[in-house]
Amino acid sequence: MLLNGLVVASYGKRYGVELEDGTELSCVTRGKKTDLACGDKVKVRLTGPGEGVVEQLEPRSSLLYRSNSFRSKMLAANVTQAVIVLATQPSFYEELLNRCLVACEAAGVKALIVLNKCDLDNANEAMLRLQDYAALGYNIQPLSARDNVAPLKPWLRGETSVLVGQSGMGKSTIVNALLPGKMVRTQEVSTVLDSGKHTTTAAHLYHLDAESKLIDSPGLQEFGLHHLNAEQLELAFVEFRPYLGKCRFNNCRHLKEPDCAIQAAVDAGDILPRRFACYQQLRQEIP
Ligand SMILES: Nc1nc2c(ncn2[C@@H]2O[C@H](COP(=O)(O)OP(=O)(O)OP(=O)(O)O)[C@@H](O)[C@H]2O)c(=O)[nH]1
Ligand SMILES: [Zn+2]
């Protein structure tokens, strides 16, 4: 008999799968397949007490992943929104923010930018840096998760959100504040220590309420986008869209080609040079 399940934890080769009655099974996949992500809907077969095997994967409404030339890593499936966590200190890498935004656009997932640690005194300066992203249409929520996580809650209602961000930005603090009493990350460290593994490979899905889910993913240091093709990449820069198809060459890469409409928009001040530079760097990573 096959049971409906939701992947709520991913530890490399093992998955935590929650059944409809709320119980959680420790599951493996058939053969060498390890292509499941937190948020995946699956069908499982019980193999023993608390154990099962994943037999089927349901179609996904979205899949967020990152990749370099060697491998790709799925971050979360069936999410409606990514919450990109930045902080006033340590200062965030704008390139990583852009890579996250591009991944969201390519996956058809909304992006919310959270600027955490706004209690620190360089908050205004950091908010100013983000105004350019507000102008592009992205929502930005200032936060001081250590003091009060309430301003984040309305954004999460009714959504399946994945938290992404560099280490040290405050993701654990946010998750713990949203799920008081669970001490989520701390608990994870101790269970994983037993197996001698690092915590950083595990992602977890939590129910905030009946309609809202939150997936906590390990801290990112890099965000490769090797899985995108040239067309997906240019479309993922939202401000490029009005100019696409207007270059002299219809296969223009917007790198050094003459009569490039994107370059012209940069020169006219309609596209930010920082975003254009980021595009060019990503474009060079694509064959
Ligand atoms: N001032 C201030 N510090 C905060 C805030 N939120 C988190 N911190 C601190 O920032 C540091 C990093 O926070 P974490 O929540 O561990 O960061 P993280 O993003 O989960 O990091 P990883 O676990 O490495 O992914 C800790 O010392 C927190 O106490 C905040 O709103 N204000
Ligand atoms: Zn061009």
Automatic annotation (TrEMBL):
<keyword id="KW-0690">Ribosome biogenesis</keyword>
<comment type="subunit">
    <text>Monomer. Associates with 30S ribosomal subunit, binds 16S rRNA.</text>
</comment>
<keyword id="KW-0378">Hydrolase</keyword>
<feature type="domain" description="EngC GTPase">
    <location>
        <begin position="77"/>
        <end position="221"/>
    </location>
</feature>
<dbReference type="GO" id="GO:0042274">
    <property type="term" value="P:ribosomal small subunit biogenesis"/>
</dbReference>
<feature type="binding site">
    <location>
        <begin position="116"/>
        <end position="119"/>
    </location>
    <ligand>
        <name>GTP</name>
    </ligand>
</feature>
<dbReference type="InterPro" id="IPR010914">
    <property type="entry name" value="RsgA_GTPase_dom"/>
</dbReference>
<feature type="binding site">
    <location>
        <position position="254"/>
    </location>
    <ligand>
        <name>Zn(2+)</name>
    </ligand>
</feature>
<dbReference type="InterPro" id="IPR030378">
    <property type="entry name" value="G_CP_dom"/>
</dbReference>
<keyword id="KW-0694">RNA-binding</keyword>
<dbReference type="Pfam" id="PF03193">
    <property type="entry name" value="RsgA_GTPase"/>
</dbReference>
<keyword id="KW-0699">rRNA-binding</keyword>
<dbReference type="InterPro" id="IPR012340">
    <property type="entry name" value="NA-bd_OB-fold"/>
</dbReference>
<keyword id="KW-0479">Metal-binding</keyword>
<comment type="function">
    <text>One of several proteins that assist in the late maturation steps of the functional core of the 30S ribosomal subunit. Helps release RbfA from mature subunits. May play a role in the assembly of ribosomal proteins into the subunit. Circularly permuted GTPase that catalyzes slow GTP hydrolysis, GTPase activity is stimulated by the 30S ribosomal subunit.</text>
</comment>
<dbReference type="GO" id="GO:0005737">
    <property type="term" value="C:cytoplasm"/>
</dbReference>
<feature type="binding site">
    <location>
        <position position="247"/>
    </location>
    <ligand>
        <name>Zn(2+)</name>
    </ligand>
</feature>
<dbReference type="GO" id="GO:0046872">
    <property type="term" value="F:metal ion binding"/>
</dbReference>
<dbReference type="InterPro" id="IPR031944">
    <property type="entry name" value="RsgA_N"/>
</dbReference>
<keyword id="KW-0963">Cytoplasm</keyword>
<dbReference type="GO" id="GO:0003924">
    <property type="term" value="F:GTPase activity"/>
</dbReference>
<feature type="binding site">
    <location>
        <position position="260"/>
    </location>
    <ligand>
        <name>Zn(2+)</name>
    </ligand>
</feature>
<keyword id="KW-0862">Zinc</keyword>
<feature type="binding site">
    <location>
        <begin position="165"/>
        <end position="173"/>
    </location>
    <ligand>
        <name>GTP</name>
    </ligand>
</feature>
<dbReference type="GO" id="GO:0019843">
    <property type="term" value="F:rRNA binding"/>
</dbReference>
<keyword id="KW-0342">GTP-binding</keyword>
<dbReference type="InterPro" id="IPR004881">
    <property type="entry name" value="Ribosome_biogen_GTPase_RsgA"/>
</dbReference>
<feature type="domain" description="CP-type G">
    <location>
        <begin position="67"/>
        <end position="223"/>
    </location>
</feature>
<feature type="binding site">
    <location>
        <position position="252"/>
    </location>
    <ligand>
        <name>Zn(2+)</name>
    </ligand>
</feature>
<keyword id="KW-0547">Nucleotide-binding</keyword>
<protein>
    <recommendedName>
        <fullName>Small ribosomal subunit biogenesis GTPase RsgA</fullName>
        <ecNumber>3.6.1.-</ecNumber>
    </recommendedName>
</protein>
<dbReference type="InterPro" id="IPR027417">
    <property type="entry name" value="P-loop_NTPase"/>
</dbReference>
<comment type="similarity">
    <text>Belongs to the TRAFAC class YlqF/YawG GTPase family. RsgA subfamily.</text>
</comment>
<dbReference type="GO" id="GO:0005525">
    <property type="term" value="F:GTP binding"/>
</dbReference>
